[in-house]
Amino acid sequence: MKTSKYKVAIVGASGFTGSELTRLLAGHPDIEIAHITSESHAGKAFSELHPQFFQIVDLPLEKATVIDDAELDVIFLALPHGVSMDFVKRWKNKNAKIIDLSGDFRLSSPKIYESWYGKDHTFEEGFGSAVYGLPELKAEEVKESNLIANPGCYPTASILSVAPLFAADLIEEGSLIIDAKSGLTGAGIKASATTHFSNVNDNFKAYGVGVHRHTVEIEEQLSNLSGGKVRVQFTPHLIPADRGILVTAYAKPRQEMDSHKLVEIYQDFYRDKPFVRVRKNVPSIKDVRGSHYCDVFPFWDKRTERIISIAVIDNLLKGAASEAVHNMNLMLGLNEQSGLNQIPLRP
Amino acid sequence: MKTSKYKVAIVGASGFTGSELTRLLAGHPDIEIAHITSESHAGKAFSELHPQFFQIVDLPLEKATVIDDAELDVIFLALPHGVSMDFVKRWKNKNAKIIDLSGDFRLSSPKIYESWYGKDHTFEEGFGSAVYGLPELKAEEVKESNLIANPGCYPTASILSVAPLFAADLIEEGSLIIDAKSGLTGAGIKASATTHFSNVNDNFKAYGVGVHRHTVEIEEQLSNLSGGKVRVQFTPHLIPADRGILVTAYAKPRQEMDSHKLVEIYQDFYRDKPFVRVRKNVPSIKDVRGSHYCDVFPFWDKRTERIISIAVIDNLLKGAASEAVHNMNLMLGLNEQSGLNQIPLRP
Amino acid sequence: MKTSKYKVAIVGASGFTGSELTRLLAGHPDIEIAHITSESHAGKAFSELHPQFFQIVDLPLEKATVIDDAELDVIFLALPHGVSMDFVKRWKNKNAKIIDLSGDFRLSSPKIYESWYGKDHTFEEGFGSAVYGLPELKAEEVKESNLIANPGCYPTASILSVAPLFAADLIEEGSLIIDAKSGLTGAGIKASATTHFSNVNDNFKAYGVGVHRHTVEIEEQLSNLSGGKVRVQFTPHLIPADRGILVTAYAKPRQEMDSHKLVEIYQDFYRDKPFVRVRKNVPSIKDVRGSHYCDVFPFWDKRTERIISIAVIDNLLKGAASEAVHNMNLMLGLNEQSGLNQIPLRP
Amino acid sequence: MKTSKYKVAIVGASGFTGSELTRLLAGHPDIEIAHITSESHAGKAFSELHPQFFQIVDLPLEKATVIDDAELDVIFLALPHGVSMDFVKRWKNKNAKIIDLSGDFRLSSPKIYESWYGKDHTFEEGFGSAVYGLPELKAEEVKESNLIANPGCYPTASILSVAPLFAADLIEEGSLIIDAKSGLTGAGIKASATTHFSNVNDNFKAYGVGVHRHTVEIEEQLSNLSGGKVRVQFTPHLIPADRGILVTAYAKPRQEMDSHKLVEIYQDFYRDKPFVRVRKNVPSIKDVRGSHYCDVFPFWDKRTERIISIAVIDNLLKGAASEAVHNMNLMLGLNEQSGLNQIPLRP
């Protein structure tokens, strides 16, 4: 470990993910934030956009071109899907590790990307080098990588809810259903009918039924894990809350199961994973709010012979910003928990 | 129809259901509220408990014994499970129709009641005469009945979400999963850790996983409908909202299905049911808030060959008070829509 | 009263006010909705915009020009400030009463309008004929009027909170402070940073400090009432709730006061006003939600010798749509309570 | 500063304040939590009560008697008013500093305590030694003290909103009005009608009008500051949000004022106070959520010649737990910012 701090840049700081990345990195003992960029707000102070940072992080927002010649250890891309790929391409030869928080390099091929995202991919070579940065599954690959595809929020919770089962190839084909619920920040900072308070408050609805992009991301990762082809029924819903994802996963085991055995499988799988907590009672999203934890509650329903697994995360953290910092820690050879010791904020 | 108004009593008016019953009945053109009772608040005005009724319904709260000698057409029991049965027994020989909003007479036998509710039943004879008052399925039986077991809130939404499928016996055994979400009023007016604002607001969790009492209520009704034995995986969750239930039902069809056919099955089934609206897009709970409507959205997922059906109701109305009024209308030979024309309150 | 129904048009139905007007008028026994217009959504069904109306009000949205030749008894303008005046001008010679829900004709002169609204007024003649439609103060003028300036939401609650005091000229000059709080629907249906769920949920802030347009509207009406010049300190805040305004008004009496006298002043003033309820305890916004009631709680603080008056309304109803219907009832010679008997929806 | 960590105990850990104290102290670099007590839950793990701490703080809850013989540097009392005083008395001769988060020692005399709290005080001697621990006003006294009366949540925000004005004796007697709004956690963790979700959600109300205990606490501190007798009109309201207080203070200056001068007065007063941020725009409660910051926005309304000052804090932190930690830092001679560097959590 070097003695001076690592220099990082956050590209695209107007959204929630950029803001949360800044919060975590500003408090990280080994990191110095060298640049924060925003094309539309360049010139303003970061804290003008995000007033909670007033007198804490008042750095000026810069144009992304400032990165071209900057000496950096890590570049975080907190950009929309379809935009990120251009910057990965642009900076591929810089001597800096890139952590892309968009969906641009999460899938297995440009073709699959195009069929679910509905647009051409402009940097197909990236697929060869990108590592899917879910540290609980991929820590070793992440350590060796220079380009991380940071997982989606729903996939993070979904995969962690059932990874122990698929890693042991215990689940009957076609039986996996993930009924997912997310706080509104998952929809981003952009003002729209979807994000209008009156459409969300005291309300609840499903959306993207049968067609949500995270479906394929979950399927690919679980397929890799189990060795077989996994199909998932994935249905997202919108919770009238700011942060948090809860997934309720249903699956039929291939073989005999009981409560004790089920819990043991989860505990064994997550034994050395400091940020996954195997719970003995049903978790709620506030149990992990503001933190990097994923709480998982596996349940065996003897009556129906079905496994129900419930997982919760903070979608902006474990599902985005803190996952990115976790990946950075691994890539830089730091303690994986460095800067991620926030205790959940409840109530 | 007689020219003077029908006299009704609301027994147990301190909770949400009693309050909503009062709201509907106070505005019903054919009804006069003769008595409202509350054991713990007798002597106070009804509007002292529920200030929204100030200067609208200021009737005094009375002890339930006032009912013994009152001449009434209909008695509504808005009492907790386990308490209601004693009053049904007490008033069984009165010349008044009884609509019981508790769970005491919803199941098929005292034995099943005891195994899911964990207490002995004190009026087993009631099971013979009680009709499960879901008007969309049982209007004819309701009209002839003197004792209505008003359906539970989750069962109302759950059954209506898939009734057309089970009525046609289209669903593969064991494939039905109902992932249900309810606003907090479903937990009742009693103050507890569960209902504390800070445990609900900006939060989301599952509860009663694998053991919720409404499971068996749903199973029994769907079994009756299909003619076979139906098993359901039912998981309730708590939405940080006052009112509303949304259920996401998953089921595998026994035979070939397509989108067009699926919608047709629903539209045919609900053709003459004025309070079920078959929607072409995903409904949200606010679309029916404050009203007697149930909105249902059936969806065929070709990729997974699974039916997803989403239904929403206001749990205090279609799932309780307005359902009771609907049953009353049928029992008294009134227009079934009488007093139930509230347009949903959104936003 | 004529035997057929009165024909009305709602101009501008895409917002909350238009939607709530439609809800009330669709249920009004003496009214037929002849036209609903929306420039941006003409051609769609009204219920496509507002799904709660599906199968209830499916009328087609039309262009406003349809009004030109339509025979109508009443035209409601639910349009933004600055747009409404053009339509008042356009339809001034139609044989139809106009109720304008915008701020365009609420103030006493074009000059004052221009100084607070920052734009020129295009129909200055309107100021001569427009009546400020607060029925509790102006019922007689409203009955004779053909053009109603329907009051703002904050002014409705603010004025009603202290009208009995100013009508009796009891308040010390310059002592009136109104600290007002509104649910988010007051900001309208337009998507913006202001209405983004994450900026509102679990949050609270002031806005428009010292400069809000409703200040002058309150001042003018209270000045008319008292006969003197009234200055108010008005500060609005944003509640993380959909509907409801609560105002906390502070004022110093000119003369001796006590609790008994204060309550009597309020009760006398509002004796024959069916929609103002003088409460003996602190009201909350949910006590009037979904209704036309204004609940007022006057309090004498002996220690500080100050009057505190708290008033609550539903901003979309008493502060907009139901106020307009109330005005319509008066203008048409109907019972003033007709179609306005909704009991507040709580919880 | 000693090299080993300071040992602290948290007495009364079942509430929000105890939980937040634990969160802060568990992350404080110079502190070791030696004991956490709860009379009603002794024997359980702390994280059983507060599941967000699972695998982070699993310390056993103990009976308070464990403190009698424990060697401790600091004892935090997170107990209800009226209970705390007995423990201060019990441990007054221990060689440990006591920080009392209740209201038991905040006022100037037992007599005033008794008149506002309605109960006798059992440890009158405490009044002589207790220091009112508002670090921005009392840092020097705090450093020398062994018993801190940690300020109330409303008084913290209220006093900080106007302290610069009263310190300079600029305010006209009797003109101060503080219209305060608090999130629900201010009502504590106890389940009651007040804290029931359905009474809070989508709702807003005032309470304690004219009689709230924090009134006298504010008056006494501002009187000390200005040298004169200060009377405040204080009205609290309940926001449907978990955390946060916003106060809107109104005051008339004795002398000429302008915007520039006003801001300067605030900036000068808070120059070396790292946790008070003088803002140039209206703050919202989420701007400080989860942090020790108080944001203050002073505004001069030229039209009405009145000062409006808006301040926001997190009531559980700056208004309770982090204030206590701040006091501890001062008492132990640590850097006053130690352990208090949390950046606000928004959204």
From TrEMBL, chains A, B, C, D:
Protein keywords: Amino-acid biosynthesis, Arginine biosynthesis, Cytoplasm, NADP, Oxidoreductase
UniProt-listed Enzyme Commission number(s): 1.2.1.38
Family matches, as InterPro entries: AGPR (IPR050085), AGPR_AS (IPR023013), AGPR_dimerisation_dom (IPR058924), AGPR_type-1 (IPR000706), NAD(P)-bd_dom_sf (IPR036291), Semialdehyde_DH_NAD-bd (IPR000534)
Domain Semialdehyde dehydrogenase NAD-binding: 7-145
Molecular functions (GO terms): N-acetyl-gamma-glutamyl-phosphate reductase activity; NAD binding; NADP+ binding
Pathway per the UniProt entry: Amino-acid biosynthesis; L-arginine biosynthesis; N(2)-acetyl-L-ornithine from L-glutamate: step 3/4
CC per GO annotation: cytoplasm
GO BP: L-arginine biosynthetic process
Catalytic reaction equation(s): N-acetyl-L-glutamate 5-semialdehyde + phosphate + NADP(+) = N-acetyl-L-glutamyl 5-phosphate + NADPH + H(+)
Active site: 153
A Pfam family hit: Semialdhyde_dh
Lineage top rank: taxon: Bacteria
Main location class: cytoplasm
Subcellular location: Cytoplasm
NCBIfam families named among the record's database cross-references: argC
Family, per entry: Belongs to the NAGSA dehydrogenase family. Type 1 subfamily.
Role, per record: Catalyzes the NADPH-dependent reduction of N-acetyl-5-glutamyl phosphate to yield N-acetyl-L-glutamate 5-semialdehyde.
Name listed for the protein in its UniProt record: N-acetyl-gamma-glutamyl-phosphate reductase
Organism: Indibacter alkaliphilus (strain CCUG 57479 / KCTC 22604 / LW1)
Gene: argC
